[in-house]
Amino acid sequence: MRLFALSGLFVLLAACEQNAPGESPAGADAIDGIDMIHHVGALADDDMQGRAPGSPAEEKVIQYLTAQFAEAGLQPGNGDSWTQEVPLVKITASPDMVMTIAPQGESEGETMQLAYGEDMMAFTRRLQPEIVVEESPLVFAGYGIVAPEYDWNDYEGLDVEGKTVVVLVNDPGFATQNPELFTGNAMTYYGRWTYKYEEAARQGAAGVIIVHETDAAGYPWEVVTGSWSGPQFDLASAGEEYRLPLRSWITRDAAERLFAASGMTFEEAKAMALEPDFQARPLNHAVSITINNTVEEITSNNILAKLPGATRPNETVIYTAHWDHLGTNPANTEDPVFNGAVDNATGLAGLLELAEAFGTLDETPDRTIVFLAVTAEESGLLGSKWYAEHPVFPLETTAGVINMDSMNVYGPTQDVVVVGYGNSELEEYLARAVEEQGREIVPEEHPERGYYYRSDHFNFAKYGVPALYAESGSEYTGENAAEAARHAAEYTEKRYHKPSDEYAEWWNLEGAVQDLKLYFAIGQELANTEDFPNWYEGNEFKAIRDRSADMRQGQ
User: Fold this and answer.
1) CB under 8 Å to 83, separation ≥6 — which residues?
2) Each residue of 447-456: pLDDT tens digit?
3) Which of 211, 353, 456, 537 has its Cα between 20 and 30 A from that of 227?
């Protein structure tokens, strides 16, 4: 990664816009694909050891980003500091574990031994050296959802104290493709694994087993094994009642064996879970597992830089990207480093390019521009959650957030996708910038994957701040369009959350540069208006934003 092949650089030189020798590009013209590649090379190098929070590599990330921000003419974003401390706990479970599922009571049948990584993944966020779940009765709780607005309650009449619930991933709308059930193909937050664990904890369960299916989850089993092995992180301030003793996944094959032993097929169970009068049912088996943990309190950091506003410095526009990735896994002897080149060294490179672009402007924007690189996104959006709970800049005077997570390395596109389309007035700012580029906005291609709930903008949205997550679509242009589409299609299956997420010579940053120029135009307009964009009517976050308007008037 340190020294790129000359052939790769020549391809990039041809693909990315270049400035004539001696020019000092300003604003959007300063955004450059070659610079992005060098940033990715530094941040996704093997020496960065996968950018795990709290690892020795964290200080290297901080040093690199702050040096680049300073060179761009920015100031420290947290008083006189470039960082905001985020207190975390690091929990590392030993992979030497077996999940035993045995018949309960007078039930007959085989005892299943599920192997770690191959059949199941299990972990905990309890801050204990040993977690023992012994003969916890298994209950099939459908999708594990309590959603009054959809008149849906999978836990109705069910006492799960001491029990482990087996639930399906995603939500009933995806399974039926019925637009009148939940939101049809588009995943709601009820479909996310984070919600499944949160709701089971509220119900008092001992554990959760989520059945993995590639289509419903939006990623293959290897993503589960890569994401949930090795150190896991949580906010140190999280209450113990929120931490289930057992969080786990099993493969569909393991689920089919379990349901068959319980007297039904897996498909029959899925059909039951879609009935309006579904009632959770015992599976006549119990689960036992022992999880041995190493628990360590650590301090990680969000990294902040700012360009103070000329006339309204107390009002802010925030650009975000997460700096962390999955670290290393020595068990992967061939390649132990999760480099995270696309996810999310590209977003960090974009953050730095935007910082440089704003730093070159002759006239400073009216509002303060903040560049926020957050930690522990891969562990549940923890860095952005901490920032939203402890904002350096008041959220009520934050005009909007623009998030970057895994940028386009495949080539230019005609279309632009808004993840969570139809949510906020920031989309009108985007529409104007897109029109200037001669591109078009299209609906989200895979709403069933729940991307809106899978990146850091979501934590700002929960506190009422309009947050935009827009990116290149799939209508690639140019002579290499077919090849670009093929590479993009392969990413989730072959590289997402795997050690193979590394820089490749075929990368084409034209699309990333396109998108960064959109983000720059939006941020520049937003920083020079007096407006505070809001959520559209009917959005669940609008009431929170409306209340913040009263707070702004009092300042």
Assistant:
1) 62, 301, 302, 303, 304
2) 888 888 888 9
3) 353
